[in-house]
Structures are given as C-alpha cells and as structure tokens.
Write a structure and sequence with these properties.
Order of helices and strands: EHEEHEHEHEHHEEHEHE
Shape: globular
Helix content: 25-40%
Number of helices: 8
Length: 296
C-alpha cells in the first residue's frame, strides 16, 4: 500500500519513489540537538530536544527550514536509532522531545516512541504545520503529550499560493479538534514547563491581517480557549523568500498589522505568548549546515 500519511494522499510506495513530501521510506533526520528558541514553557532553561525531520508535505514559499526540505538532506536513521536519539536528548537535559515536521514519518515515529516511551521522563512534542490527517494523528494517541501545530490560513487562495495546499483550513481544523481530544487541557509542572496539551501557533504574514483574524476566530470555534494556549508570532522575515515569491512577502509585518491581530486574540480571550519586533531575524533559525546529533 502506498503512503497516505498526509492530506496529499500520494499513495506512493516510498521504497521505490517519493511523493509530494520528497521523503524516501527511510527515516532522514536533519538535526537532533537542544534548541532554545521555542515558546518559554517548551524551551525553558535547558532547551527543547528537537529532532528536525527532512522533507515536508507543505511548500511554504517563505519557509525558514528550506535547507532541509530536500529528500537527500540529513542523516538516515533506523527506527531503533531514532528511539536512541530520543533517549540521548533526554540525557543531555532536554525539557522535552520535540518532533519537528514529523508528519511524513509519523508511522515510524510511533514505532520509535513505543520502544522507549516507558523510559522517557519528559513530554513528547509533535511540532507540525497543521496540515494533518486525523487518521495519522490517531497513530500517535498515547505517545504524544503536547501538540504544537501551526494554523496558517483560512483563505484557500492564500493557502494555495503560499503553501500549495488550498484545502489547508479544513484539514487544520479537524486536526486541531483531534489534538485537543487526545491531550485535553494544558497542564504545567511546578516550574511552569508545559507537560500536556495544545499550543497553536499562528504566524502573522505581511498583507495577511484579515486572514489572521479569521484564523483566530476559527480556532475559537473549534476548541475551548481556556484549555489551550496561542503563540501569535511576529517573526516573519523575507530573508527566506525566493525571487519569484509574491511581492507582498518581500517585506516584514508592520506593527499595525500585528497589533490588530493581537487585539482580536485578546478580545476573543486567548491566553498565550506574543512576540515583540525583536523576534524578527534569521539568527533564530538553526544552522542546518552543521552535523548536530547527540552522542549515543
């Protein structure tokens, strides 16, 4: 049977060819290291144990992780080696195991987590673009403690033009409801670190203020706001846009745009994390040119 893990439903035998995500059947990991630039209750003081998977089921024209989207990027790992990587990151002091862009490897990630879940004393974070199939998320039930999805767009036109996914909003809405069903309300430990729940990220885009407001309203219609947290991001930078990107994406988000969206979030009753303009800059993106993996 071909791969049906993401909404693309390519139905490709990945041992012979690749689908839209560009990923082969073998696990490929671009980076596994402590990362300090996630939300405060995820990064904490010791860092989040991030595992960046190569490949992606979206085609965001402004993607800051473009360097690892290629199928040949990263290091090939077996399921057992991935499981050992989780344990090694925990040994390094990571507050959590943070699976970044994991969708196209969800089945193998579930296998790896089953091997070591009883030895992990830190939460597992599923850090994804929000473009998910409910059926795939159910493979992870009981294995993932924290869901950290994006909710990028409502507009099919924006989703199509910017991420090649005009059906994005419908899948993101259903996925968010499933994530909340699995984890329930957010919970924190005595140090304020997140132990369980859903944090929804939304990146405000230049020229996208109205759609951002629609995204927040959709989230509010889908899950109880008191039970989740919002991460409203201002960090958009045009540095990663190719020359052919739409002209509006060649500038940064204005203070007016971000503050209008933030006020709507406050009016709806969201709790969470807001960014200042100092968060803008490519210095917060990991250096994927370095071979960063823990010793095992």
């Amino acid at each position: 049977m071909g791969c049906m893990l993401c909404p693309r439903k390519c139905d490709v035998d990945r041992s012979r060819a690749v689908g839209f995500c560009g990923a082969p059947a073998e696990l490929r990991v671009a980076r596994a290291a402590l990362h300090y630039f996630e939300e405060p209750p995820i990064s904490g003081t010791r860092g989040s144990g991030t595992v960046f998977f190569s490949g992606c089921s979206l085609r965001c024209v402004y993607c800051q992780n473009r360097a690892i989207r290629a199928a040949e990027s990263g290091r090939a790992l077996s399921v057992a080696e991935l499981a050992d990587t989780f344990l090694a990151l925990q040994k390094m002091g990571a507050h959590n195991i943070n699976l970044v862009t994991p969708t196209h490897y969800a089945d193998q990630i579930a296998e790896a987590l089953q091997l070591v879940k009883d030895r992990l004393t830190v939460p597992v974070v599923y850090n994804c673009g929000g473009y998910e199939r409910v059926e795939t998320l159910r493979l992870l039930e009981g294995l993932v403690d924290i869901y950290l999805p994006d909710f990028k767009y409502i507009s099919p036109q924006m989703a199509g033009n910017y991420s090649a996914a005009p059906d994005y909003a419908a899948y993101a809405t259903a996925a968010l409801a499933e994530m909340y069903r699995q984890t329930g309300a957010v919970s924190f430990d005595g140090e304020g670190m997140l132990r369980r729940g859903v944090v929804v990220r939304h990146l405000v885009l230049p020229g996208g203020r109205r759609d951002s407001i629609a995204v927040l309203s959709r989230i509010a219609e889908t899950v109880p706001l008191a039970d989740i947290r919002l991460s409203l991001m201002r960090q958009y930078t045009p540095d990663f846009c190719p020359e052919e990107a739409p002209a509006v994406l060649k500038r940064r988000v204005t203070t007016f745009e971000y503050e209008q969206v933030m006020r709507h979030a406050e009016a709806l009753g969201f709790e969470g994390y807001f960014q200042t303009k100092e968060a803008v800059g490519k210095q917060y993106t990991p250096d994927f040119s370095q071979d960063a993996f823990p010793e095992m």
